[in-house]
Structure formats: structure tokens, C-alpha cells
Amino acid sequence: MKRIDWNGLDEAGRAAALARPAQSRATELRDGVEAIVADVRRRGDGALRELTQRYDGIILDTLQVGDEEFAAAEARLTCELKTAIRDATDRIERFHRASAPVAVSVETAPGVRVERVLRPIRRVGLYVPAGGAPLPSTAIMLGVPAAIAGCRDVVLCTPVQADGRCDDAVLYAAKVTGVHRVFKLGGAQAIAAMAYGTDTVPRCDKLFGPGNAWVTEAKLQVAGDPAGAAIDMPAGPSEVLVIADEEADARFVAADLLSQAEHGPDSQVLLVSPSHALLERVGDEVERQRRALPRADIAAAALGESRLVHVRDLDQALDVSNRYAPEHLIVQTHDPRALLEGIESAGSVFLGPWTPESLGDYCSGSNHVLPTYGYARSYSGVSVASFQKQVTVQEASAEGLRHIGPCAATLAAAEQLDAHRRAVTLRLAAMDAIA
Amino acid sequence: MKRIDWNGLDEAGRAAALARPAQSRATELRDGVEAIVADVRRRGDGALRELTQRYDGIILDTLQVGDEEFAAAEARLTCELKTAIRDATDRIERFHRASAPVAVSVETAPGVRVERVLRPIRRVGLYVPAGGAPLPSTAIMLGVPAAIAGCRDVVLCTPVQADGRCDDAVLYAAKVTGVHRVFKLGGAQAIAAMAYGTDTVPRCDKLFGPGNAWVTEAKLQVAGDPAGAAIDMPAGPSEVLVIADEEADARFVAADLLSQAEHGPDSQVLLVSPSHALLERVGDEVERQRRALPRADIAAAALGESRLVHVRDLDQALDVSNRYAPEHLIVQTHDPRALLEGIESAGSVFLGPWTPESLGDYCSGSNHVLPTYGYARSYSGVSVASFQKQVTVQEASAEGLRHIGPCAATLAAAEQLDAHRRAVTLRLAAMDAIA
Predict the structure, then answer these.
(1) In which residues is Zn(2+) bound (chains A, B) (predicted)?
(2) What count of other Cβ atoms lies within 10 Å of the Cβ of residue A227?
(3) Top-level CATH class of A27-231?
(4) Interface contact flag, B364 A121, Cβ < 8 Å
(5) I need a labelling partner for A14 at 20 to 30 A (CA). Which of A3, B38, B108, B129 fits?
(6) CA dihedral for B204, B205, B208, B212, sign (positive or negative)
(7) DSSP secondary structure code for residue B134 in this structure
(8) Whole-prediction pTM value?
(9) Does residue A328 have an active-site annotation?
(10) Does B422 sit within 8 Å of A289, measured CB to CB?
(11) Residue A212 marked ligand-binding
């Protein structure tokens, strides 16, 4: 990990210190995904079968996972894992239910009622990656808010494994969250299938979930097409920033940095601290712990792009963090809650020594589908609201129109929109005619 | 307006009947906008001055509107218009405040607290078009939620007029909503300036507001660039769908259809009704009222793409509406509220004879920046939430980690993420060592 002295840097140096590994939408990737999307639109299920054979090496008889496959998957799982999936689901449900949007009704003037009602997005498509390892936790993170939002048609795509099956735990997690329509599809072809529909895969209004560069590029492409589908957010590699002071336990901090670094060689981890001693200790501890990991090589690659940043004090640490806008922000300081007020941009925050990022990744209750790559400056993580539309409703009585109609007519006249004005004045005249 | 019998159509005919005028991101438009964006990124303020001279025919001394210009604009406005702007702002504020997201705090397990906190997006850019006529109402619709969200830096761009000034009412509306940084910039160059920043225009994290095809294309381009800015939503031409029954007043319905049609030749208006007689009456009335409008030609062009749709009953009318997913949905039936439950996809809904769309456009309290072009299937209109990030926070005590740590460790093991697992087990071991 590279050591950086924040106060020894000029503006350009600071920008470089917080730069993320470049993410170019390379022409090759763009063209490759465009070809796949076009193929799926043109040839539907036939294309899906061919692409799955080409990329996953599997000849699929049926694309959809059948009831007996769900049952067999469940039977193969340990009781411990099934219990963990159900417990995690319960806690995630509790938090997501509590933070779901609520209906609103306000009288803004006598006789004028304005409301906000909530409507589920009808058909949603969830993508659960299984590139490195399958991610049942992502099935929970997407399935729970979709269910609370009341989405009627929920579709889930996840890559098929070498044995022709989908991962047992992903299927069980899907079932526990109420998702029964699962397709053995991965990559750009899965995104294309959900965005445009085929004979077998229903066309979805919005797509959710993380994925590799192909999946991400496909999501961007279908989101840019009015005939395509909306997406949850743009995505990049995972990342964590830790703010820690002298009192932090270097072993804990190192473990948290590594749990991000093992995600992939392009993951980025930063430690920001006013304590030279801590930076030193954590640097050593990271190396020590890393060697024991099964994914030690991946972690080493990620650590190559990572930073130990020395700052003047915790206020400056907050400045650095807000500027970076990390997906995950861990605070291990003497009084972590004292820093919360100053946190402006982050996907999810973890306070104190006993809150490793793993808790949020799996089972504290918050969502782990979060904005990466600096998008935390303007995007939020997935929540129930991501699966709903907020529709405004207004109803004026004759009295209400009398009250606010003249205001609307004046503004319409200022905007030279005469038909807008007349839609009001014609009604006011009709009222007078009745009276 | 074209008459359509919904039940006489097959599936393809129904799709065609609800098709919107094609919206292609023509290569010419794309390339033209790309060139402007690149020029603004490269040459900054110099490019802005040149482009403004080329497209608006104005040589700008300073890009930013000065204090004395605000004061002069206010002095030129009528008392009536200023009062209307303030009254509308008050009501919009009331509704937006009531429907703003709230902080949440939940204990999801003993010793595990999960919260949602709200943070304003730091720098936001508002675009207020003035192509046909200037739109002070849009300045209100964007300025009010930005202020309630607590955005610290708010920038507004609006095209310069032939007299070298910005519209007086737009400036006054900006000031009333607390926006003091206004730039005399329009078109793709305004979007580029706010997305990337110049010496004069600050770089913004998210851009809001409607605009013509150039503005919309520029917004899509900067949203697709990680170095660019997020946007509120994709946009298309404005549209309304009216559901009316035998009892509706044909004059009111016609006036509402026309107030949408006058927006532009590509606006689309639909009337859906089970009553042949009403469809007939409204058709006649539209033609009669249209002739009296200053923008009669624009309305005639829009009506050419519009439809009178006959359906079996009001349930079928709802089906048609949900399938179309209109930006504005007006319900003028015997019991309009009875239909609300069945409305799935719409930007904003107007119930009953005394609620013309103009009320929502200007001053009922709801927002008029709404999803068009079928995006109401998956997007919501602008609200306070659009200007905020929802950040999740978790804090576990040692007891909390004991409770849910094993669940996280089990799931991490299932996902073969060993460092995730160890970040938990190492802490649990440390606890045991202390005890």
C-alpha cells in the first residue's frame, strides 16, 4: 500500500491520490456488448441458448429453473446456511420496511388536496452474479426490497455453473425472498433478455444488481434506450475507506481493508489517519493477514492501487473521505458517532470497532447494493424506494380552484401558454354561470 | 385527432395506437452535442462565450447575472406576477416539505442499530429553458426542493434573451427560492458547463430540468460519463392522457387536451372514454377552442399525433392508461377517486372537473418535472429526495457482533470470501481474549 502525506500534496497531487483505477468503456467492450444485445433482441431464446453455450460452456434444455430444482437445491444446503439466509433476510426486511417511503396527503390551500401515492414498478429484473463465487447475499439484498415494494413480477437471472445448475444458496435465497422465476442466464445476454424480453424471459421495466464489466456495460446500454429498461445505478469496482485514529485496533482495520481487497484486483481500499503509528501498524498487519488468505493474490493486486493517507486531524480525514465519496466508509475512532454529522458522501457507514463491513454486506439490515466509483456524491444505495414510483395526485374542489386558479392563470400568462390559462379561466367562468 | 376503437384492434394495432412519436438520438444531434461538450471541457468560458454568440446571437461580457440585474428584473415585474410566484412557491414548499424523506433508526438485533441519514447533494445544477417562452415555474419547481434538501451550492442556467438579459420572472423566481447564482447560458453548452465546470461555472454533481433535444442529449451524454454528472431523469416531449366518462364536461376536457397540445408540435394528447358521445363532443370542442389560441398552429401539429380512444368501460380505460404510462393523467369521471387505486403508472394525476393540469403545472404544490415518454413505468417526478442521498449507517456493540457476527461469517464462507469471514471471527476471538 502506498503511503501518502495529504498535507505534502498540491491540488493536482491530491486529485491523483484519490483517483480511481481508470474505467473506460473500451470500444471493444462496447461493440461486443452491442452485438450480444442486438442478437438477443433479434433471435430471443435461440440467442440466449447459443450465448450460454459459448460463454458458459453449457447446453441448456430449459432456461428457467424448475420447482424440482429449487427443492433439490434446498435439500443440499446445510441447516446452518439456511438459517443464516433466513436470519439475514429477517433483519434486512426489518430495516427496509422501516425505511420504506410512506403515502402523504396535504391540503395546500382550502379545497386543494395534494397527495403522494406509492406504486410498485410492475416488472423488475434482478441480476445475481456468480463470476468469482455465487452471491446469495445479493439475491436477498434485491429480493427483499422488491417484495416490500409490492412488485408483482420479479425475475432473477444468475449464471449457470459448470454442472448445469444454478448455485443452491442463490436459489434458496431467491425462494425465501419470494422470487420464483429464476433463469440460468449470466452476462450481457441476461441483461438484454430482461430489458427487451424473449419468449421465455419477460421484459422488465427496471434492472437491478451488480456485475462484471460486460453486465455493467449492458445495463448502461439498455438504460440509454427508451425501448430498453431503467437501471438501479451505474456501477464500478467495490471500495472501502477507513478513518481511524491512534486508538483503533490495527488488526481490525487490516481485516476490514482486506475484506474489500479480496473482492477483485480492481477493488480499492484507503486508510486515512492522523496517526503515523497506526498507518505503520496497519500496513504491517495487512501484509501479515493477507498471506493467510485463499484469495491472497487478488488482494495483493487490489492493494497495489490502494493508499495509506496521513492527514492532520479527523476533520481533514472527513474532507478526504467526502472528496473520495466511498461506497463503504468505516470509522474506527475514539468517538466514531461524533464524525457522523460531517459525513457528506458515502454509500454506507460502519461505526466503531465491532462493526466490520461484513455485517452490512450480509446481515445488519442495510443494503449492500451501493454506489461505487464516486457515485455516492449523487446516488444512494438500493432501497424499497428504488422499486417504487412516487406518483403525485391532486384534487381541487370548486372552492379550491377559486382559491388557486388565478395564481395559475397569472403564471400561464407570463409563460405565454394561453391554453393553460384558459383551462382555468373557462372553469371559473363555468362556475360563475352556475352560481 | 384520430378516432380509435380499442376493442377493434389486435395486439399490434394496440401497440401502434399508443406509440409515441419516434425519438431517435440521431447521429447528427449526437455528434453536434459531443462537439459542444468537448469544446466546453477544453476551452471553458471562452467556448461558452463563443457558443452563446453563435446560437443566441449575444456577446456576453459576464456570464453570471449580477445583483443589480436581479434587482432590475424584480422592479420590472407586476405586483400580480410577483405575488403569484410567491404564492406558488409557498404551496410547492408545503407539499415538498411534507413529502421529504425522513431519518430512520432501527434496532435490527440486540446491540445492532441501523440508520438512514439524509445528506444533500452538495452541488446541483438547474436548467430552466426559455426556448418558446421562459419558464419561471420551472425555476420554482427545481429551486424549492433543492432548498428543502439543503443543497449548499445551487447553480441555475437559463438562456439569454435577444436583449442580453435573462427573463425577469425567471430571475425573480430563482431569488424567491434562494438561488442566487444564475448564468446566462442555454442549450448543450449550459449542461456541459455545469457537468464539468469552467472558471466561472462551478462543476455540479447532479443536473435537473427539462429542455429541448440538444439539452436532453447533452444530459444523457454527461450522465454516461463517470467524470460527468448525474441527471434527474431522461426526458421526452410532454404528454397528457385524459380518462373521461359520459358525465364529463366536454369543454373542460378539450381545454385540458389543448393545454398540453400547445406545448409543442411533438406533444401528445390522448382521450380515453367508454362514451362515443363524449369522444364526439370533445373532438368538436377541441377544434372550436383551438382556433382561438395564439399557438393554434403548434396545437394543430400536436393534435395530428393524438388520439380519441374508445374503450369498453373505465377498467379498460385504466388498462390503456397504465400501458401508456402518461406524464399527466387527468380523470374526469363520475367518481374519479374510485379509479386512483387502479392507477399504476403516471407522473402526476389530476382528479375531477375542477383540477385542470395547469394547477399542477404551476401551483397546486406538486412538482411539474415529471417522467415522459413512458418513463413513468419506472421513474418518479422530481422531489426533495432527488436532491438528497440516503446514507445507511450501522453500529454494532460487542454484544451486537456476538448476535449477528456468526450469521455474517456463515454467509461469507458460502460465498468463499474468507477475508469477509475473518473480519468477523478475528473480532469475536479478540472479545473472547478480553473476557
Answers:
(1) 260, 263, 361, 420
(2) 11
(3) alpha beta
(4) no
(5) B38
(6) positive
(7) -
(8) 0.96
(9) yes
(10) yes
(11) yes
Contact B182, B92 (CB under 8 A): no
Q: How far apart are CA A165 and CA A186, in angstroms?
A: 12
Measure the CA dihedral B117/A117/B373/B96, to 10°.
-50
**H helix runs in B224-371, sequence order:** 250-261, 276-291, 296-304, 314-324, 357-362
Asked if A410's CB is within 8 angstroms of B81's CB, the reply is yes
Q: What is the DSSP string of B40-104?
A: HHHHTHHHHHHHHHHHH----S-SBPPHHHHHHHHHHS-HHHHHHHHHHHHHHHHHHHHTS---E
Catalytic-residue membership of B310: no
Segment A234-272, tens digit of pLDDT: 888 889 999 999 999 999 999 999 999 998 888 899 999
Per-residue pLDDT of B276-317, as tens digits, reads 999 999 999 999 999 999 888 888 988 988 899 999 999 999
Q: Are B125 and B410 in contact (CB under 8 A)?
A: no
Which cell numbers in the block locate residue A182? 429464476
Domain with CATH 3.40.50.1980 in chain B: 27-231, 236-380
**Ligand-binding site membership of A189 (annotated):** yes
Q: Which among B109, B96, B136, B126 has a CA at the least distance from the CA of B398?
A: B109
Q: Which residues of A touch B301 (CB under 8 A)?
A: none
Of B285, B328, B357, B368, which residue is the catalytic one? B328
Closest Cα in chain B, distance from residue A170 (Å): 10
Q: Are A311 and A4 in contact (CB under 8 A)?
A: no
List all residues of chain B from 275 to 314 with a beta carbon under 8 Å from chain A.
Answer: 289, 293-295, 299
**Minimal C-alpha gap between B15 and chain A (Å):** 13
Could you tell me which CATH number the domain at A236-380 has?
3.40.50.1980
Task: Kindly report the number of other CB atoms within 10 A of residue A132's CB atom.
Answer: 15
Tell me the shortest Cα–Cα distance from B47 to chain A, in angstroms: 24
Say what the ipTM of the complex is.
0.96
Mean pLDDT of B357-379: 96
